[in-house]
Amino acid sequence: MEHVAAAAIVDARGIVTAWTEGARRLTGYPAEETVGRAAVDLLAGELPAAVPRALTGTVVVRHRDGHLVPLGLTAAPVLGPDGDPDAYVLTAGRPAESEPTLSGRVFEQAPVVMCTFDTRLRYLHANDVACEVLGARAGDLVGRRVLDTLPDDEPVRGFAEKLRQVADTGNPVRYETYGRAPSEGREHAWTIEMWPVRDHRREVIAVAMAAFDSSQEHWARRRLALLNEAATAIGTTLDVTRTAEELVELAVPRFADFVAVDLLDWVLGTEEPPPGPAGDVVLRRVAHGSVFEHTPEASVALGARDVYPSFSPPARALGLGRAVLSRAGEPDFERWAEDRNVKAPAGGFHRRGAHSMLAVPMRARGTTLGVAVFVRAAHPAPYAGDDAVLAEELASRSAVCVDNARRFARERETAMALQRSLLPRRPRGQAAVEVAHRYLPSGSLAGVGGDWFDVIPLAGSRIALVVGDVVGHGIRSSATMGRLRTAVRTLADVDLPPDELLTHLDDLVTHLTPSHGGEDVPELGATCLYAVYDPVSCCLSLAAAGHLPPAVVPPGGPARLVDMTVGPPLGVGGFPFEATEFPLPPGSLIALYTDGLLEGQEQDADRGTAALCRALSSPEASLEAVCDTVLKSVLPEQADDDVALLLARTRALGADRVATWDVVADPAQVGVARQAATEQLAAWGLQEIAFVTELVVSELVTNAIRYGEPPIQLRLIRDRALICEVSDASSTSPHLRRAHAFDEGGRGLLLVAQLTRRWGSRPTGTGKTIWAEQPLP
Fold first, then answer.
1. pTM (two decimals)
2. Which of 139, 371, 564, 730 is deepest in the core (most CB within 10 A)?
């Protein structure tokens, strides 16, 4: 480039008095247009404050044709007789034409953005990296204000404010910002140092700046923050669908513009995984979301199934077991995008611009559950290797939570199936009580508990009502509940009184408890309430092992809790159980329940009991309606434990359905008893079964006279079956045996067992009762 030197003379008032040809060639102004004018009129802006004091520096002159010309200026004073300068000789040249110094080369070639500004925030210098980032030449930047060369956004305004702060206060500033450079579409993170430049008088004459690209560190921190947040934001519930939704909510929009989670069908059920199919993969959409409302770019509806061809990134990710990164322009990406547009053309507009995609398999404990797809469209930066690592970590954490939710659902379903199989179906018809019940499994994360109830028909038209609660939740508690229910049914078949039955049940639990410690035993601490109602005597007998007492509502009266002595929970051992017996008029309501009905987050047991009594006293027409009223009035909104409720309305067998005779201990009275029974059957219209009844009465009365002790009593009960009972004062129970060919006796009970539907013996307070049951014709 041709070297051009320019010179001019400016008097003490700042008026140009001489102008050289070199000056005309640099600025385009001839001498006749400059001589006599103020020198500052030729500048593109104000004269930098440092130049008059240093008599050297860089100024920006506006060329005659309008463009800006940076000039290196040097002023030499012309002294008058008194020693004061009368004028200045100015020499100028293009700064780029002078050979740069070593420090100048360091500035220009520094690998970071470096700029110098005057105190009015105009460019004085910009190095090569700064020019590259700003997308402009150094000559085009000198003299221009900062805000004129950068986008008008919040980061730029903050940057200019920091420069102004340094220029005004003279204090250095260091800060970090995040924004998009004019020459690039991708956003960068910058660590910026600003410091004042001072003259020999320590006055600020310029502001220098150096910006370091800290994008890698910034993105690494963001990825780490996202992973930290994922640890708490994903898996807050043991619900498969909600877990997938939490992954979508976390990733959009910080990591992706669109996210979809598709799972294999078996994951949403309770079955074990089938063998993996080859080729095309069928998945079900569980969750998706995007930066657009209602996710219009989704090609698969929530809950719908979709076939993923083998070439598609999701299918490849499932096959390879690792993340698959695809970008626009790649054959598989374009083919996949076209497949989506064909399946759902309505969302094609919103899919336009998608340029990068990550398909990541969701694997947990060596099992593939599905795939997560992350897509970027509005986000300018394409996915890279670090993003794939982050996506795999997010998908892995989500997969573990999904697998936990799946396992919880499977265990809960197993426990509920086990519990449903063990709980009684609707009880068979009987005359003692009308029953209704409700069982609500816990909605908490602890799982299904061990609450249970039962209705057991007993001899003599009596009925046993049972309710119990096993400590803990899950399959073990459900299995324990089944064991206790079976044990109660077995003991009830022996027809033990309530206190004796609980004593045997307590012994059983104690034997089931392992002798070594350190193992939770669900049986230990279980509770049980056992009640027996007799519709003939209209009496209720009951005993409790650590269980809440029942509520009773007499006809037309208020509800009250039964005043009874509650024994210790099962498995404690060494303490007796006490039975309570009292008359209960026909039409009374009995309510047995577990503690989950009364336990709430805001109400204590006393308040819950009062609410239960009020609900039971409501005038409802049916027991089913009473059940619903109780649950609605007493049960907390979020039950943390299982709830079992058993209601029974008592009935009575009147004198027209019961016949009783006292029998003298004389073998001659067997015929009298048989005749009395025959006449009673005739009165009841049951002549068809009179022959069998005669044989049963004859055998049972004969045994009582021969082997028992007086007093002896015969009773017939006409209920849904005909029941024949013979009582005596002996506590020795008979047993069935096989008589030999030449034995003269021993065949009576065998004959009774063959002729009746069932028979048995039960202890009484004064002896025993032998009973046999015949079906009615």
1. 0.58
2. 371
